[in-house]
């Protein structure tokens, strides 16, 4: 039944589930390992923000028949459009690197060197998209990532402090430390990821979902966001219960330890399977979202159903990101730290792009009666403002750290 449902999964579920990628898993697991259940309240608020943002993007795609890239080009000046796309490209290129780092970390757990796994994965993912069989692979990657559904089971079997977890979910137990703030911004960045907004709007338009079909797409989008974040919260709970030394994660094996109550001595293999599926899914979705956005802004053909000669910019951008991301992921270094830092970068860039979404979704001349109403506009504005304040604080702390201050 679940596999049948996945066969008809829409852009909303695909985009949200892709957010539980390598960087997401590493960040959620590190949140549990480092701060226990304290970040669950943050995730509750972030889930509200994700639902609001994803719904606005899906609505824009359905009611205009266009993705965010073309909407930004049409509704804003060339300079403003260029700024948005450069910010988006910077964030996404970092994410593509992290997805291939996730593939490397997953296969490293079963003894495959990154110098073997990353090049092969890059070629396979590129070929699946360019030669038109990506839609089938998309379902396969989703099914592989179902391994992470074992986290809710692990969270129960690990015997967490249920009362403590519940109270810290509904009531803030925040810490006023640099580490807590930076990880909070990383949680925002990995959950409300810019590529998810561009992807869902572009994919809704590409699939021809219109106003008449939007009711079903809205359910897909909102349900997908809530489902993905519930899994994220269970990852935090399972890791907090399994790891008692409160410190940042350093290896994928440490994150896999939280699955031991479910898989026993096969915990690392189960974690590797889920990480591989989630990373491969996002390694295709992230560069596709960049290609959608820039091709839309340029007003040229963009579709995974086209050949290279029909959509050279779209497929060329996709190809370049795949191979640059894979090449950088081969550079020696700590893969977990790379994954979390990529999410921090996303958290800093996210409010810039959310501002565009907020403005577009509120324009009646663009959406008519489907534009944000007063209450929805207020909620969305508060969400974006809070994310912006957190990102600004993290950016200041990061820059001061470069000069040895703080």
Task: Provide a compact summary of the structure.
Its main location: membrane. The chain is mainly alpha-helical and 406 residues long.
Describe the structure.
With 406 residues, the chain is an all-alpha fold. The protein is built from 20 helices and no strands. The protein has one domain (21-402): Amino acid/polyamine transporter I (Up-down Bundle), CATH 1.20.1740.10. Helix 7 (114-130) runs antiparallel to helix 17 (312-329). The chain is globular and about 55 Å long. It starts with a helix and ends with a helix.
Average predicted confidence as pLDDT: 86
Instruction: Please give the radius of gyration in angstroms.
Output: 20 Å
What fraction of the residues are assigned to beta strands by DSSP?
A: under 5%
CATH homologous superfamily label? Amino acid/polyamine transporter I
Q: Uncertain segments of ≥5 residues (pLDDT<50)?
A: 1-8
Query: What does the largest sheet look like?
Result: none
Question: N-to-C terminal Cα separation, in Å?
Answer: 53 Å
Please describe the topology of this protein.
Elements: H1 2-7, H2 11-18, H3 22-35, H4 40-64, H5 68-75, H6 78-108, H7 114-130, H8 134-145, H9 150-157, H10 162-170, H11 178-191, H12 194-206, H13 214-242, H14 252-256, H15 260-263, H16 267-298, H17 312-329, H18 335-361, H19 364-367, H20 374-402
Helix pairs in contact: 2-12, 2-13, 3-11, 3-13, 3-18, 4-10, 4-11, 4-12, 4-13, 4-18, 4-20, 5-16, 6-7, 6-16, 6-17, 6-18, 7-17, 8-16, 9-13, 11-18, 11-20, 12-16, 16-17, 18-20
């Amino acid at each position: 039944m679940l596999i049948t449902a996945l066969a008809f999964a829409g852009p909303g579920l695909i985009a949200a589930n892709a957010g539980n990628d390598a960087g997401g898993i590493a960040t959620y697991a590190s949140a549990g390992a480092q701060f226990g259940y304290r970040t669950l309240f943050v995730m509750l608020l972030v889930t509200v923000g994700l639902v609001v943002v994803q719904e606005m993007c899906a609505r824009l795609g359905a009611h205009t028949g266009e993705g965010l890239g073309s909407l930004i080009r049409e509704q804003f000046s060339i300079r403003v459009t260029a700024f948005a796309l450069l910010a988006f490209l910077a964030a996404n290129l970092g994410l593509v690197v992290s997805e291939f780092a996730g593939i490397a970390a997953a296969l490293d757990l079963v003894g495959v060197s990154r110098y073997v796994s990353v090049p092969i994965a890059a070629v396979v993912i590129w070929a699946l998209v360019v030669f038109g069989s990506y839609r089938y692979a998309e379902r396969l990657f989703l099914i592989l990532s179902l391994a992470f559904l074992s986290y809710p089971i692990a969270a129960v079997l690990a015997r967490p402090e249920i009362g403590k977890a519940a109270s810290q979910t509904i009531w803030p137990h925040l810490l006023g430390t640099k580490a807590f703030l930076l990880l909070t911004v990383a949680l925002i960045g990995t959950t409300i990821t810019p590529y998810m907004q561009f992807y869902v709007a572009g994919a809704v338009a590409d699939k021809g979902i219109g106003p008449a079909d939007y009711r079903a797409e809205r359910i897909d989008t909102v349900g997908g966001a809530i489902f993905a974040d519930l899994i994220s919260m269970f990852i935090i709970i399972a890791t907090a219960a399994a790891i008692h030394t409160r410190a940042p994660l350093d290896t994928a094996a440490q994150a896999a330890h939280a699955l031991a109550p479910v898989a026993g001595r096969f915990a690392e293999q189960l974690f590797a399977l889920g990480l591989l599926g989630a990373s491969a899914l996002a390694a295709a979705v992230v560069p596709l979202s960049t290609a959608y956005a820039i091709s839309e802004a340029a007003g040229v053909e963009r579709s995974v159903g086209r050949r290279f000669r029909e959509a050279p910019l779209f497929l060329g951008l996709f190809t370049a990101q795949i191979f640059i991301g894979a090449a950088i992921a081969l550079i020696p270094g700590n893969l977990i730290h790379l994954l979390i830092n990529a999410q921090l970068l996303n958290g800093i860039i996210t409010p810039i792009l959310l501002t565009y979404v907020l403005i577009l979704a509120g324009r009646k001349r663009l959406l008519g009666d489907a534009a944000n109403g007063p209450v929805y506009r207020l909620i969305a504005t508060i969400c974006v403002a809070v994310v912006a304040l957190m990102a600004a604080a993290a950016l200041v702390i990061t820059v001061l750290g470069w000069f040895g201050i703080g």
